[in-house]
Write a structure and sequence with these properties.
Chain lengths: ~260, ~260
DNA sequence: AACTGCCATATTTTCGAAAATTTCCGATTG
DNA sequence: CAATCGGAAATTTTCGAAAATATGGCAGTT
């Protein structure tokens, strides 16, 4: 007995190397992959609070999965610094702290600065077109949301986030280093944890900050192959970090983090 | 029935956060951790050839473990780029290539350059003492091995490797960035795969390269808080990469990598 | 009250088998 | 002969239970 999967499941012939963007239709190929994606999303949006223990039984019920795929996913998330764990005492959501956001921000700047420089050296017409297109799509979404009076739909916030991500990826896309691209990707997700609560939570209407102008400046300098682009990008990230650090009431440093 | 572990196993009360150095006595706390360490060691020393499929049944027999801890370990190794995998087609040893060693080397230089600069800014007396001590220990080992006539014992090669690693870690140890340290660590292991075969395999007696002199120069410039240290370190890594690239007969580019 | 040892319970970790999927091979067809 | 189809075998992935370990409370002692 014990039917493992409800139906024969989506017959994705392709499969796809992990780490690739795609998947598109038909969903994740394995339950482990699905667990990874859902868990990561839930951590990033704050569905689990920082530092909160992640008990396997609870996760099993929440996602309707068995231990094996969950453990795999948690293992993977741990190596991406979204989850912490101690030997025989289980997993917990990685804590948030000033030190962490600063380290993540500065590391991200180090990685993306280099990636941006290389992209500017290697970038061709397609690269430029990709950046312009991504910027435009992002602007449209910003425009649309600024028109809305009250609260913005969650779906729109996700669309916004997606386009923002896409824009920043376009800038460095032609650096020709798999490692730099992967690191930038991970650091984007790590910092997302810090940005999103601030973003969903509150200051939506009164956008004190003109992020679009910053993005445009970065784009212009980048297309002009100017080293200034690197400085602007770094400033952009540092400003974001500063705003977040100011807006969060950091929990008092406690000795016992996990569990 | 089905006794899980032979005996009650070593009762390591401590446990220890993963990623920490220690463990010292009493071995890994969990079988998953043990699998990770053994598998990683076997991949790095080339016990499994690059590109070779890692079949679970074979691993199960080799290490006397069940699937779960093995999969966990493989998952972890994949996120460290030592293992590749495709959705439902299993794992394989990550391939070696010119592109990879170049990317790894340049990324390592990017990371360690920044880490070294910060260490030079932050470093105190203990930091300096640590570097001097590590250099000295490394020199002693080099000295000892150069005296030996014929082939050197494997244990000595490992001791050498360990002290070399320790020296490079000492240089950047005070950068105050957990991420940079972790990345440097991972890149060290990644590049180890390329260095070791060359190291074990052949040119032991006729050390054409005076690595000790290079190390001393790096140390001196570092202790003198000179930016020159960064340049020397980068040269050191690029030279190593160049030697390796020259000494390896690269396999012809084939389309099908895994399995 | 503080400390210690012990037991019951909660939780993680590991196992071995079942299920799902891919791979391989031969027969069949165009 | 190339291509395709089917089905057996090989392999990965998932499950659910068993084992190992940690946790928390309670009694007994100092």
């Amino acid at each position: 007995m014990a039917v493992h999967r409800k139906a024969g499941r989506n017959a994705s012939a392709a499969g796809g190397e992990r780490g690739a963007a795609g998947e598109s239709a038909s969903g994740p190929a394995t339950l482990g992959e699905a667990a990874y994606q859902r868990l990561r999303a839930d951590i990033v949006v704050g569905a689990f609070k920082a530092g909160e223990p992640l008990r396997l039984e609870a996760l099993r019920q929440r996602y309707g999965l068995s231990f094996s795929p969950l453990r795999e996913a948690l293992m993977r998330l741990q190596s991406e610094r979204l989850v912490a764990s101690t030997a025989l005492r289980g997993f917990s959501v990685a804590p948030l702290s000033r030190e962490e956001i600063e380290d993540a921000t500065e590391t991200r700047i180090l990685i993306e600065s280099e990636a941006l420089r290389r992209s500017m050296r290697n970038g061709d017409d397609d690269w430029e077109a990709g950046i312009v297109a991504a910027f435009h799509a992002l602007s449209l979404q910003v425009e649309r949301q600024s028109k809305v009076a009250g609260s913005v739909a969650t779906a729109d916030l996700f669309a916004m986030e997606e386009r923002h991500h896409h824009f920043h990826r376009a800038l460095i896309s032609h650096c020709r280093s798999p490692r730099l691209l992967e690191l930038a990707e991970r650091l984007y997700v790590e910092t997302q944890r810090y940005r999103l609560p601030n973003y969903f939570g509150g200051v939506l209407g009164q956008r004190r900050r003109d992020a679009t102008a910053e993005h445009r400046e970065i784009m212009d300098a980048t297309l002009g192959r100017s080293e200034e682009a690197v400085r602007l990008l770094a400033d952009h990230y540092r400003k974001t970090a500063a705003i977040i650090e100011a807006s969060i009431e950091w929990p008092p440093v406690s000795g016992k983090a996990a569990r």
